[in-house]
Amino acid sequence: MAFRAPRCTALLLLLAALLLPVSGFQMNYVEVNVGSGGDATVQVDYHLTWVEYVGAFLGIANPATELRKALEEYSGATVNVTAVSAESAGFQVDRFARISSDNGKRVFSTPALTFSLAEEKLRSYWFAPFISPDLSPEVVVIRFPDGYVEIFRDEASIPAITHQM
Asked: 92: helix, coil or strand?
């Protein structure tokens, strides 16, 4: 039997891909646009590894579903998925911000968001030993109706925000 270098190389690459840990789910950008009534649209851009693509394809772990559940848990509101692609998801969150009044001015209060708790959920999947997720978004932007913006970088937890208009 003759030795075939290309076939051997392909086999070694396949074994390396299957046996070596890979980096995991990475949240790149989160944008929350709070509307004048307190509802919000949320855009999340992320990166999946090939293992996670397989998990999503098989229905084991759908990033949009998991993000929707996390948003519902933290906001206590109804969350609807409005768009999904391989690298992003969009959501509509009812009553994301609470609105009150102080000396005749409207006060918007957003809930704190903790992305690190989603890591626990990722660890429950079969592919958990093969990934090391980065759930601290590179950038989180929270935008209010008057144009006021809060920006956070590489934070696993975003504090509650109170903004007076």
From this structure: strand
Q: For residues 12 and 3, what is the distance between their CA atoms, to the nearest angstrom? A: 14
Q: Tell me if 152 sits within 8 A of 139, measured CB to CB.
A: yes
User: CA–CA separation, 65 vs 41, rounded Å?
Assistant: 16
Q: Is it the case that residue 24 has pLDDT exceeding 60?
A: no
Phi, psi of 77 (to 5 degrees): -120, 170
What are the angstrom distances between the C-alpha of 156 and each of 7, 22, 47, 51, 137?
44, 21, 16, 23, 7
Highest mean pLDDT among 83-87, 98-102, 110-114 belongs to 98-102
Q: pLDDT tens digits for 99-110? A: 999 999 999 999
pTM of the model: 0.72
Output phi, psi for 128, to 5 deg.
Answer: -55, -40
Residues whose CB is less than 8 angstroms from the CB of residue 33 and which lie 6 or more positions away in sequence, other chains included: 40, 41, 42, 143
